[in-house]
Amino acid sequence: MITDITDYDVTHEDAGPLGNQIPNYEKEFNSAKVFLQTASSATGDNLYDHLTEVLNKILAERPENVIDFFEEYSRKVKEQRFKPLTDHLEDIYVQPGRFSLANKILPILSPLPPGEPSTVDPEDLELADMSNNNLIELLYYLEQCGIGLPRSEMIFVMISMRNLVHTKPIASIRFWGKIFGTISNYLVVETMLKEEEYMKRNENYQEEQAPVEVQDEMALNRGEAGETSAALLEIEKRAGMGGEEGSSKYPRPLPPEPLIHYEELPEPPPEPSGVGVNKKVFYVCNDIGESWTELPDVTPKQIRTARQIYKSFTGDLEAEIQSYPEFPGKEKEYLRVQIARISAGTQIAPLGYFTFGGAELGEGGEEEDEFEEAAGGASKTHYSINPRYDPPPLTDLLDQSMSFWVHTEPYILPQGRTTWWNPNPMPDLGEEPGEGYGEEEEEVKPRGERVEPETGPPLLTPLSEDAVLETVPPWSVRVSSKILEGFALAVVRSNIWPGAYCFSNQGKVFRNVYLGFGHKYVEHNFSPLPLPAVQQEYPIGPEILEILDPTGAEEEQWRIDHLPKPKVIPVGEEAEGEEEQEEEEEEEDED
Asked: Which residue ranges does the record annotate as region Disordered (predicted)?
């Protein structure tokens, strides 16, 4: 047995496995270090690093009787190395965008605060039905159609819609879609308010829309100012007049200012809340976690102007709309107008799903409603779900003629309203309400020129009657899967408003959604309207002619030509004139 290093035999290097050998210190050191650096399968730490940190801590503090506190130092080093997985804010870097998004989402995920007790009738406090707003189911169908939004976004939109229902007087709510902007996007929800809320808004609207004669007041002010200036000019003229009349240094009075005889056409009044294009109220937000903003109602002038411009959205509701013609409003009004136009042209349903007349009254109610339509002469504006609806087969929904799909939103007339407004109403003849009704009333002609009323297609008109833009069909239809036809969807896409889709599950379930930029299809490159021709200030006639300025020589020649000519005195008359002059001089000398 070898007991000392001197017992090694240095003369025989290769003495065999049982012979004496010289130890390899470097190899033994590396082997020991590798053993100490073996990581633990539970914590991932190793003894080598742990002893290194313990010794560094002891050498830094140099306590007395360190051998008695070695285990305590080892424990403190292990505590400092321990990092819990839940401590993300201190030890794990979180991007600012994710951190701000988390702060927005946390209030949404929190439960709603308990409402205060109210004495209002429970029926009036009934909230909107959220059973038809399962956006997870909607996302399932949209994925089959090849469109949609991220799942997380759909979930949080559904949660924020629940919170919106509890804070606003909403009777029904629906996810309308998403409009993309250059800076940020808009998430849009469509709502129907309660009847009492519509009544309240219409009362305030009548007060705000009181006629204010601003133009007449301005004209009156201009007239008073003109009269005042003319009076001051006349006073100054009289005060400065001296000597003979007409020798004043002040000029003659100026002619009166020209009057504007142009009268603008009467502007159609906007439709009240809950009627026509303002029937529904829309709320938008830029991103999940942000508060919803209600969009204002639209006016006919805004709709007419929006049809003549082509503007991209920025994502800022208060952004100015720089366009020609000038849009009367900001981006929030323009966004609301585009939503109304998209809804009027792309909201569709399978044929037979909706019907006119009351569903509760049955056939009698439907016939009564038809009688009211015939008597009033106007198209129907209300429909309900058909209780006897028989879903059409998938082959009918995929028909390229689009005869099995109908429009569900009223048509917007060129005037900018869904109902035509007569600018020249019948004159008030002072008759009683019971008189003049029937054939005698038709004989009375309105004042001014007769204007033909604007008409459009009625509600529930088949898509087969839509106009074609040159060679582009207004609609395209396809099937989601040609293999699983029993579970396939009929997908309808609008070519007039790219981004508008409608799908139907064998005619039983259908949804409308819009995911686009809010632009209408243009068959050619968009060209803004040209500026109007410059109006003539004065009529061209002999009184106003443009001529060249005369030169100096011409002016001098004109002056010479217009000098007073000398008087020619006859010879006999000249002598008589001299004698008379001498007699007058003699009389003056005598005096």
From this structure: 425-462, 555-591
DSSP-derived letter for residue 317 is T
Chain position carrying tokens 């991209």: 312
Kindly state the tokens that stand for 335. Answer: 């966004």
Q: What is the pLDDT of residue 105?
A: 83
What are the CA-CA distances from residue 342 to residues 107, 346, 348, 355, 473 (Å)? 33, 6, 11, 23, 17
**Residue 61 has which token pair?**
């503090």
User: Which residue type sits at 119?
Assistant: T
Helix (H, G, I), strand (E, B) or coil at 511: strand
**pTM of this prediction?**
0.67
* Rounded Cα distance, 554 and 549, in Å: 10
Q: Decide the pairing of beta strands 475-479 and 405-407.
A: unpaired
Tell me what pLDDT residue 459 has.
Answer: 92
Query: How many Å apart are CA 27 and CA 35, to the nearest integer?
Result: 12
What is the chain's length?
Answer: 591
Backbone angles phi, psi at 491, to 5 degrees: -110, 120
Alpha-helical regions (H) of 37-125: 47-61, 70-81, 88-91, 96-109
Q: Is a pLDDT exceeding 60 seen at residue 27?
A: yes
- pLDDT tens, 244-253? 444 445 556 7
Task: Return d(Cα 180, Cα 312) in angstroms, integer.
Answer: 9
Is residue 341 within 8 Å of 303, Cβ to Cβ?
A: yes
Place of tokens 């030169």: 551
Amino acid at 437: Y
61 or 110: which leads in pLDDT: 61
Q: What are phi and psi of 502, to 5 degrees?
A: -145, 130
Q: Please tell me whether the peptide bond between 410 and the residue prior to it is cis, using omega within 30 degrees of 0.
A: no
> E strands of 5-156, at which residues?
none
Chain mean pLDDT for the chain: 78
C-alpha–C-alpha distance, residues 57 and 453, integer Å:
94
The 3-state DSSP composition of the chain as helix, strand, coil percent (nearest 5) reads 35, 10, 50
Residue 415 has pLDDT above 50, yes or no: yes
Mean pLDDT of 311-330: 94
